[in-house]
Every structure is written in structure tokens, then in C-alpha cells.
Amino acid sequence: MSRSNRSLAFTFAHQVHALVYYHTEAFTSGQDLLQAAQTDPFVRAVPDTGLGESTFYEANAQRGSQQMFELVDRLAKQASKRLKIAYPELGPLVALDGSLIEACLSMRWAEYSSTHRKAKAHLGFDLNYGLPRRMALTEGKGAERPFVSILLEPGETGVLDRGYVDYQRFDAWIDEGKHFVARLRKNAQREILEHRPIPQGTAIFFFAKVRLGDDTHPMQHPLFLVGFKARGKIYWVATDRADLSAEQIAFMFSLRWQIETFFAWWKRHLDVYHLLSRNPHGVLLQLLAGLVTYLLLVLYFHQRYGERPSIRRLREMRRHIRQEVARAYLPVYHMDIEQLLCLCVFLLGVHAQAKS
Question: Residue 217: its pLDDT value, please?
């Protein structure tokens, strides 16, 4: 509902359609999308009321974020039901990382330096299914460690790089039932409590039960520390999980590259960092819509091709959207099941299932 007693003409469903279409077609500005809304019969049909410039920008700046969070969660759960789990023996695995977003100088909330403005997207990425699940947004200098409590659930294992190292938080996460596999700095102080057997014929050269910290500020809980060499670099990785072998610990940390690959693909091929809004709510809403778009691609390409999203399939889908509009010139609500190849129409079915 609007602030008055009148129903909203531009609803959340309209917001989702507009933002998903923005990312699907890789528009580079809101004006490009609004122009398409005036000239493209496909866009005019989604919403029937049209996309007014003030309505569109006002809606994105003020509302829809909570519903978008819920939609991300529902779509991620639907996708995980359809995909095969990759590492069931390792339990739930979530890679955590942040990605900087270039901002303009007028975005004072996105402070980074005296001459630059940047925001930071903090993401929880499910490594067992290759899916983004949770997101938070801060200014570019925002610390990453506090977001473990938001992005990681009890029973899950967070796969973390050195920016997340905090011994007090390590103890707190263990007390909360949250596990981690975290890369340490090479000079991390430790007390060896028990040496563990080192597997032969591997890149692992150290494995022990240790207590991190110095005599003044030691950790309360012991950890298991692995040292290994990969691609010419030395890695020190610690975990609280006693059930893992040295090889499993090293392997779990190596999976962290998946979140970096996701960020690169997501930014490059869906243009999610061409910002439509300058306020924190609008930026967060657009990023969440980018996650929704990616999850829809996962569902759609898995259903049609049995494949993960790829730029080749994405280009095919974009061509198909244009061909369907040119051939049929039909409002999208009147297309039959075969014409659900269009991603934005596919959204209608997924969103309806998610609400049921």
C-alpha cells in the first residue's frame, strides 16, 4: 500500500520485473530502461501501468528491500532443491567475501577516501550448490568480520580469507555453533598442543592442534592448523572442526575461489554495478535484484539445459527474448508455456511458487 489509502500502482512485482529486466538486458543506466519501457512492447506489458521516471526512482530508493531479501532466500532454497550437492561429507559450506563498488562523490555515505567513494557488498556464497544466499551493504571501508554473524548460520562452516581473522570473534563464533576454515597471516602466534600425522605425497607440511594468540590474549578454544603449499605460495589455514583431515581442510579453503569467480561473472555479464540509485537503500535493492536475476538464470538454465549459467546461454536467451517479441508481438501475460523461455515471464511462475 502507499502512504495514502490508495493501492500502489507500481507494486513490488513491478519493481522485480523492472530490475530483473534491467540486469538481464544489461542496461547501463536507468534512462535506458525507462526508454525501453516507452518503446518496447515487451517491457510495456510488465507492468501494465508503465514505468514513470519519478515513480521508478522513488520506489527503488524507499521500498522493496525486505521483500527482495525474502525472494533471494526463496529462490536460493528452490535452486538448492534442484541442484546436486557437491560436498555432502563436508557439511554446509559458505564462502564469505566483500566486493567494492565504485560510487560517485555525492554518495557521502559510501566513504572510502577523501577523493573516492565506494560501497562494499558483503556476500555469503553456498559452496555446495554454487549459489549466492545472503548479502549486506556498507561503505567501502566497512569491516568484513562483523558480517560473519549475519551471513553465517549455526551449523555452517564459513570459508574465510585473512581479512576475517579475529581471535575474539573466533571464540564467539565457536560458542554460537558457527564453524570456520580461515586463512591466517604467516606470523600468527601459536602454541602447539598436539602434532598430527602429516599425509605423505601431498603439499601439506604441517598439521597440529594449536592455541592461537599470545600469553596475554590467548584463544579460549583450541584450533587445528594446516600448513600447505599451492601455486608457489605458502598457506596457513585454521579451523575449529576436529572431524576434518588435513587434506580436507586444505581442500575446503581452496573452494573459496568460487565466490571470486561468481563476483567476476555477476559484475561483468549482468552489469549489476551500473547503479540506478545513490542512496544506501536503492543500491542494496539493486544488488539484491542482481542476486534474484542470477538465481533465476540458475533455475532456468538448469530446467532447460541441465547447465549452470554461462555467457553463451545468456546471449542465446537475450536473442530469444528479442525474437519472441518481434515474432509474436504479444503481451507477456498471454505467452504459452514454450514462450516462458523469457526470463522475466519465468519469474512470475517462480515468484508464485515461492509464495505458496
Answer: 86
Q: Pinpoint the alpha helices (H) of the chain.
A: 12-24, 30-39, 41-44, 53-62, 65-82, 148-151, 167-175, 246-254, 257-270, 280-305, 311-328, 343-355
Burial class (CB in 10 A: 0-12, 13-18, 19+), 281: middle
Write the DSSP assignment of 291-323 as a string of letters. HHHHHHHHHHHHHHHS----HHHHHHHHHHHHH
Q: Tell me, what's the pLDDT at 119? A: 94
User: For residues 127 and 93, what is the distance between their CA atoms, to the nearest angstrom?
Assistant: 5
In this structure, the chain runs to a length of 356
C-alpha cell at 1: 500500500
| Neighbouring-strand partners of residue 180 | 158
As a whole number of angstroms, the distance between CA 283 and CA 279 comes to 6
Q: Indicate the residue type of 175.
A: D
pLDDT on residue 340: 36
In three-state secondary structure terms, 229 is strand
Q: Cβ(156)–Cβ(94) under 8 Å?
A: yes
Closest to 25 measured CA to CA, from 245, 220, 34: 34
- Grid-cell match 557521502, residue found: 108
Residue boundaries of the structural domains of the chain:
12-67+277-355
List of the chain residues with pLDDT < 50: 1-7, 45-50, 328-343, 345-356
